């Protein structure tokens, strides 16, 4: 059975109501003013990083892979009244990305636990800034509204580099500025220990497994700042984490680790 088509104007109005978003003044690199999307708590979302994107999920926000999806996919989601977040790995090198040769071997550390991925030396801002800028340009050119930069907590891992909290703060703020310079919102991925220092630099948060590791209260600075927290669990059942998520104001769901189309929202 084909899905029932909702008239565009009605769907757009519904989306505006559901997202409870505001426009944050910003400026693009050419100096023109732009309205940056600001998702508020209470915004349902879908996170799909594997397989062909299922555009039929009735939520106002999608988070999808920036490399693997075309401008046509983003445009389709926009026609349905949705905001779209561009997933990028900004903390590790990935052998399977088209720009993998732009990273010199000296900037690659130990594996991050995923096949074909190695931690980046985030101390090297002048080296990494133009590479990440090109990736953010790609997201903007495809029409994405925001960026989800992954692995922003390298300093807490065994990367092979002597990274400090100060190195991470500098890198994360550089990443946030790259998004804002292009008129896009940006989310802080995990990095719970640095939320107090970074909540003003980021427009929302994306978190994995805070219920499993008993860390969800650490995300409340975003909620208090009226910024959405997009949260997923992989192992903890909904009936266990959803009451806590609702009490804290998180926008939560359970996903498979493969991050395919399946979701079980609170």
UniProtKB/TrEMBL annotation:
<feature type="signal peptide">
    <location>
        <begin position="1"/>
        <end position="23"/>
    </location>
</feature>
<dbReference type="InterPro" id="IPR013785">
    <property type="entry name" value="Aldolase_TIM"/>
</dbReference>
<keyword id="KW-0732">Signal</keyword>
<protein>
    <submittedName>
        <fullName>Endo alpha-1,4 polygalactosaminidase</fullName>
    </submittedName>
</protein>
<feature type="domain" description="Glycoside-hydrolase family GH114 TIM-barrel">
    <location>
        <begin position="45"/>
        <end position="262"/>
    </location>
</feature>
<dbReference type="InterPro" id="IPR017853">
    <property type="entry name" value="GH"/>
</dbReference>
<dbReference type="Pfam" id="PF03537">
    <property type="entry name" value="Glyco_hydro_114"/>
</dbReference>
<dbReference type="InterPro" id="IPR004352">
    <property type="entry name" value="GH114_TIM-barrel"/>
</dbReference>
């Amino acid at each position: 059975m084909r899905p029932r088509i909702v008239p565009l104007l009605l769907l757009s109005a519904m989306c505006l109501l559901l997202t409870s978003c505001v426009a944050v003044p910003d400026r693009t690199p050419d100096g023109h003013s732009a309205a940056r999307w600001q998702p508020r708590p209470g915004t349902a979302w879908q996170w799909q990083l594997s397989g062909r994107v299922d555009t039929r999920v009735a939520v106002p926000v999608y988070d999808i892979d920036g490399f693997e999806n075309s401008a046509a996919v983003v445009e389709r989601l926009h026609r349905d009244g949705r905001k779209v977040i561009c997933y990028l790995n900004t903390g590790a090198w990935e052998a399977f990305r088209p720009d993998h040769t732009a990273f010199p071997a000296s900037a690659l550390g130990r594996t991050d636990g995923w096949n074909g991925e190695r931690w980046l030396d985030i101390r090297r801002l002048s080296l990494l800034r133009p590479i990440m800028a090109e990736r953010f340009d790609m997201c903007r050119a495809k029409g994405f509204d925001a960026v989800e930069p992954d692995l922003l907590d390298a300093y807490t891992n065994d990367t092979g580099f002597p990274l400090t909290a100060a190195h991470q703060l500098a890198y994360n703020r550089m990443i946030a500025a790259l998004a804002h310079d292009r008129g896009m919102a940006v989310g802080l991925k995990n990095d719970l220990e640095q939320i107090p220092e970074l909540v003003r630099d980021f427009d929302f948060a994306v978190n994995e497994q805070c219920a499993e590791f008993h860390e969800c209260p650490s995300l409340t600075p975003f909620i208090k700042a009226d910024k959405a927290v997009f949260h997923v669990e992989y192992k903890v059942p909904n009936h266990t984490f959803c009451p806590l998520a609702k009490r804290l104001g998180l926008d939560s769901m359970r996903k498979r680790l493969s991050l395919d189309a399946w979701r079980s929202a609170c």
